[in-house]
Design brief:
Elements: H1 12-21, E1 22-25, E2 28-31, H2 33-40, E3 52-55, H3 61-67, E4 73-77, H4 87-96, E5 101-105, H5 118-131, E6 135-139, E7 142-145, E8 148-154, H6 160-177, E9 182-184, H7 199-210, E10 213-217, H8 218-228, H9 232-238, E11 244-250, H10 273-286, E12 291-294, H11 302-326
Parallel strand pairs: 3-4, 3-12, 4-5, 5-6, 6-9, 9-10, 10-11, 11-12
Antiparallel strand pairs: 1-2, 7-8
């Protein structure tokens, strides 16, 4: 699920560019006001269109700058851009000048019983203020407690106690950012005995209480359905589609011969046919929605990712035509 910003060595000209964009104030590095305004005032690039988007990787940068591909938007992993300066920000700002941007986070640990990491939340706010993304989303799960952090996104029991602290955390995030966020359905490996709600019932309650939107990860639906023995089609048919503002379409999970007892999210392969089928079912209920092609491991050449994005655009165009005929 994680898209790495990668590492790169800045040239002298890159370093000069980044120095012009930032000022140092005490221990905190803040974005220069002119750079913020330049990004924020990009007319027509604020909203996320109902088209295919791609998870931005630095490996794609030169292809994008040289050819300006017809991609609807790009998404970044928030945690990859929480440092204030450097070459990744220099390149991302160039991308933002030409494309809408969304921000996806996995580090807020909104499912944790402990308090949110205030420093992390402020870094997220700084990032959003700087790039003015059209959408901001966070994963439903937890990854840290009491100052200890795990490199995993762990599932939650779906009950009233969990609902209370998840909603409190979402409220705190939305208040700090001054905007609503989207919450993504997780991939799970089973169910908790303490759960008294289905995942769909839980997410529906979260939306009603907090006013947040939803990010539907189709690959997560498939993985969870296989692991739990439930129906992916049934999940899609009961999902509150009116609140879905973005869809993730990730790479296929590892097969059972590679993970003996369960499926897990890989994002290192092309999209499986069964996931395409679930996606088409979701579109039939939700209509055309911004859809992300998500690669995070073993990222292929830009041409491979661009072709998958093109396939998504064709499906979205067909969905819009069908919706027009039904209207």
């Amino acid at each position: 699920m994680r898209r790495g910003a990668g590492t790169d060595i800045a040239s002298d000209s890159d370093e000069k560019a980044t120095q012009q964009e930032f000022v140092r104030s005490g221990e905190q590095v803040v974005c220069a006001e002119s750079a913020v305004k330049e990004v924020a005032e990009n007319a027509g690039l604020d909203g996320i269109p109902a088209r295919a988007g791609v998870g931005f990787d630095l490996a794609f940068y030169q292809d994008i700058i040289d050819h300006r591909p017809a991609v609807g938007w790009f998404e970044i992993l928030a945690e990859d851009y929480m440092e204030a300066g450097g070459l990744p920000h220099h390149k991302l700002r160039k991308i933002r000048e030409h494309y809408p941007l969304s921000v996806y986070g996995v580090g807020m640990s909104i499912g944790s019983h402990g308090p949110l990491d205030k420093a992390h939340l402020l870094r997220l706010k700084t990032l959003c203020d700087r790039y003015q993304p059209g959408l901001v989303s966070e994963h439903l799960g937890w990854s840290g407690l009491g100052g200890m952090y795990l490199n995993e996104l762990l599932p939650l029991p779906y009950n009233d106690r969990t609902l209370e602290h998840v909603c409190a955390h979402i409220d705190e995030i939305q208040t700090c950012l001054g905007r609503s966020i989207l919450v993504e359905n997780p991939s799970t490996f089973g169910t908790f005995l303490s759960s008294d709600k289905s995942e769909v019932e839980f997410l529906s309650a979260v939306v009603q209480i907090t006013g947040c939107g939803l990010l539907l990860d189709v690959n997560n639906v498939y993985v969870s359905a296989v692991n739990s023995g439930l129906s992916a089609d049934g999940y899609i048919d009961s999902f509150p589609m009116t609140h879905v503002e973005e869809i993730h379409l990730g790479a296929r999970p590892l097969g059972r011969n590679e993970v003996p007892d369960s499926f897990e999210v890989s994002h290192a392969r092309d999209v499986a046919e069964i996931v395409w089928q679930i996606y088409r079912r979701a579109l039939s209920r939700a209509g055309a929605k911004p859809t992300l092609i998500e690669w995070s491991n073993d990222v292929p050449a830009w041409s491979v990712v661009a072709e998958e994005a093109h396939q998504v655009d064709l499906l979205l165009e067909l969905t819009e035509k069908n919706d027009d005929r039904s209207a």
